[in-house]
Amino acid sequence: MVTRLPVIIISNDVVPGLTLPVAAPGLRAYGLAEGLRAHDIDARVVVVRHVVDRLWKKDVPPPTPRGTELVSGSELRTYLTSHAPAIVVLTNSNQIDHVEGVEGLKVVVDLFAPKMLELVCQEGTDALPIDQMQSLRERKIRALARADGFIVNGAKKIPYFLGWLLQADRDPRTTSLPVVNMCVPLSRAGDEERGRRKPVRLALTGYVQGWSRPGPWMEEIERHLDPDRLVLDLVVGEHWGNAGEGLPDSLLALREHPAVTLHPVMAYEDFVTFLAGVDVSIDLFTRTLEREYAMITRSIVALACGVPVVHPRFTEVTPLIARYDAGWLVDPGDAVGLSTVLDELVEAPDELRRKAENARRLAQRVIQPARAVAPLVELVDTLSS
What is the CA radius of gyration of the chain? Predict the structure, then answer.
């Protein structure tokens, strides 16, 4: 029987349990750890402390959830050395400097997101950010070269990351890229109410990022809003890494609409409770190279809560929604198609309930951490032997 090495997942962002708003990288680390623990693997999440210090505004120390430790960047190398032998999972290449050269570590690089495309696809950026691209490329190639194994967050990204493997002189013919989809713990709160509420409640949520901004479809949504039939909850804000950009005018203009409620960003636990009170999540954005390869976390969290999603036809999440009929797929530029969907939400409550049931089934079979991490469990066993 293989004695499994402990697993340390390094997170560059806050995770659930710290009573702070959470973004995709923190949710990824948290979900992987929860899934590994379900398989009796000793998994802990190490959060780089400066992020928490930046966001935590209270005089008392932040709560530390089970299996989570806060470690400053300057002490991370010492921490990893003291906990070797172990398997370290990097959800991006930011911390490779602290991992290289530490004896007793097996390194798994999580091919989590197309970070280079995030740089390239920033809205309003005409010239390529060459200096940032060169720095990221150098660091990413070092991480790929050092890795003892890989996982990839969605099958659509495999060709994209094959190109990166070649840059790192890794043989794509013999390098395994097992798919470990985005996973978060499931919630069934509010299931029985979906499709029965009047008015129907839509939610538009998440951080506004430079590579994913609201577009003209907001006008179509606004045209359908009615306090008695269809209302919209906005839970949007800036991520700490992009502070200062401000919310788009299209969102700010909606604040005065009688069918719109604007909420501040919430701690993850409060956000999940909020989702229990909505019927459908709206998650639309312009098609870009980055969005093509992204595993859209807003939609994953909604589906994990049994909330069907209005979603584009071109992301990593699209085939999941299509396979389980867990929402409505629409071209963001198709005003007629979006109008039809919005009308159906109000006029066909049975269809809304059916799609909500399908969202729950998708979540149980795909998003549930214990199921999603099965390929990572196999990799842990291989690296432990």
Answer: 21
DSSP secondary structure, 242-272, as one string: GTTS---HHHHGGGG-TTEEEE----HHHHH
Q: Is residue 2 part of a domain?
A: no
Q: Whats the size of the chain, residue-wise? A: 385
Q: Residue 39: CB partners within 8 Å, gap ≥ 6?
A: 370, 373, 377
Tally of domains within the chain: 2
- Same domain for 196 and 284, yes or no, is yes
Helices (H), the chain: 24-38, 49-55, 73-83, 96-99, 115-120, 130-146, 158-167, 217-224, 249-252, 268-275, 289-293, 297-304, 318-324, 335-347, 349-362, 369-372, 374-384
**Residues 119, 195 within the same domain:** no
Rounded to the nearest 10°, the torsion over CA 86, 88, 94, 99 is 30
Q: How many CB atoms lie within 10 A of CB 272?
A: 20
Same domain, 127 and 197: no
Q: What is the pTM of this model?
A: 0.94
Is-contact 107 100, C-beta < 8 A? no
Report, as an integer, the average pLDDT of 135-144.
96
167 shares a domain with 46:
yes
Q: Which amino acid is at 305?
A: C
pLDDT at 122: 83
314 in a domain, yes or no?
yes
| 262's tokens | 């604007």
Residues 6+ apart with CB under 8 A from 113: 24, 25, 92, 153, 293, 294, 295
Residues 219 and 148 in one domain: no
Q: What is the CATH number of the domain that holds 336?
A: 3.40.50.2000
Contact 9, 43 (CB under 8 A): yes
The reply to whether 340 and 230 lie within a common domain is yes
Q: Are 184 and 304 in contact (CB under 8 A)?
A: yes
* Distance set, CA 364 to CA 34, 186, 357, 358 (Å): 15, 8, 11, 10
Domain that holds residue 302: 191-366
**pLDDT single digits (tens) 255-314:** 789 999 999 889 999 999 999 899 999 999 999 999 999 999 999 999 999 999 999 999
